[in-house]
Amino acid sequence: MTPLIQPQDVPYLPRGVRLQGDHVRGIRVLQAPERAMQLDQIGEAILTELDGARSMAAIVAELAVRYNAPEDQIAGDVRDFLTGLIERRMVFVKDIT
Amino acid sequence: MKDQLQQPRDLDGNPVTPGLPMAMLAEVTHRCPLACPYCSNPVELVRAGSELSADDWGRVFREAADLGVLQVHISGGEPGARRDLAQIVAHARDAGLYVNLITSGIGITRDRLEELDRAGVDHVQLSLQGIRPDMADRISGHPGSWDKKMGFADWVTEIGFPLTINAVVHRQNMERLPDMLELAERLGARRIEVATVQFHGWADLNRGALMPTREQAAFARQVVNEGRIRLRGRMVIDYVPADHHAVFPKACMGGWGSTGLNVGPDGTVLPCHAAQSIGWMRFENVKERSLSDIWHLSDSFNAFRGTAWMPEPCASCERKTIDFGGCRCQAMALAGDARATDPVCSKSPLHAQVVARAEGDAAAETTEFVYRRMKKGG
User: Fold this and answer.
1) Does B130 score more than 70 pLDDT?
2) Nearest chain A Cα to B165, which residue?
3) CB-based contact A15 B236, cutoff 8 Å
4) What's the predicted TM-score (pTM) here?
5) Cα-Cα-Cα-Cα dihedral of A24, A29, A33, A34, to 10°?
6) pLDDT (tens digit per residue) in B34-55
7) Which position among B2, B31, B202, B205 has the lowest Cβ density within 10 Å, counted as fewest Cβ atoms?
């Protein structure tokens, strides 16, 4: 999978995409146009960090500390997870220019 | 079959286990300024006088959310034909649902679109009938529709809604699919849904004018595949192929009564929008029963749940939990039996006949339409 995001890029949830609790099933979902995606704990942890200000690299560093895990491994997981969502237009990358 | 008070059962009496619905299609009206000859509304349209009120819809949305529905697709007809559409949208958001508005873009002014923004519409899906004024206006039967739609698309992106373009393709416009993708991209769409006409109801009356050829179906597939690579990360293409030319049927609704439900303008609850074409089936209404009871306990929703009801060749097929025997309405239309294997499946004994008929329709010379209209009077 060719990555669609670089470490210095700033990912964010665009309008029309939001995290929501599903009280009936007791899960967290990502709501987007015509799609509702069930999130596991890792997915939710990543998406909760998306504030439209910090870069993916900064988010990876934060998660590596919090989960006491090697930064390399977290970086790969985050990059692949976000690339999958960028492909589906559920995560956008901020235009820095 | 008697009502199912305790154990839900399919139409043969086999026990079934209902899951939870994710999505609800709310057809808030059948009124529409367009007259597309493939309209997915039933041929017998519901009149304005029988429509649920906005407050009725509010109750239905709350029941839907309690039942597990996450997204509502507010559609029609043209939902903008309802003066109280913003109130309906607000009720859906209050219930905690994600609101997709599915519209022709005709009859919603910029002011109203801003009102719908304030009411909480999450996403707008705009239908296009062609990529140029002449085609769009002819197919929709509405002169001037193209210009109005282009103006509407601009407002959608100016206000900031995510935009999906919905392009229904058929024999008379399939060659223009590459231009349609380009147009959707130019309009700033995040998604395009390319849906081949499904031949139920109105579209079935227009088979000779709409049925794509086998070559067109192959061309569309190729355009979609190439487009997905080229547009990766920029625009999503969702594709409903021409199933009369397929090897296996589509997994209609992801399985009958498994993840979705449809509530019509008068409150009739259907497992899919075409289900009323199964003439013997009785459907229930939210005015008489809770949505939860209808979902879990009604004969209509339980009829084709699970796999025990399936006849051969489905019963022994390794794909029976992949495509669920295909589309029940298509089985009704083509085999005269709603429980038959969907005749578009290559394993159906009727397959050769269905393909021959589709190829006959595809070769028809006609381009004339039977337009979707309400009958006069009433």
Assistant:
1) yes
2) A33
3) no
4) 0.95
5) -50
6) 999 999 898 889 999 999 999 9
7) B2
Q: Are A40 and A28 in contact (CB under 8 A)?
A: no
A52-96 pLDDT, tens digit each = 999 999 999 999 999 999 999 999 999 999 999 999 999 999 976
Judged by a CB distance cut-off of 8 A, whether residue B235 touches chain A is: yes
Instruction: Please tell me which residue of chain B has the smallest CA distance to A29.
Output: B70
pLDDT digits (tens, 9 = 90+) for A29-47: 999 999 999 999 999 999 9
DSSP letter (8 states) at residue B285: E
Q: Is A16 on the interface with B (CB under 8 A)?
A: yes
How many Å lie between the alpha carbon of A63 and the closest alpha carbon of chain B? 25
Tens of pLDDT, residue by residue over B202-227, are 998 999 999 999 999 999 999 999 99
CB contact under 8 A, B236 and A29: no
C-alpha B268/C-alpha B331 separation (Å) is: 22
A14 part of contact set with chain B, CB < 8 Å: yes
Q: Which residues pair with B281 in a beta bridge?
A: none
Place of tokens 């839907």: B64
The sign one gets for the Cα dihedral B62, B270, B263, A21 is positive
Q: Quote the longest CA-to-CA distance of chain B.
A: 57
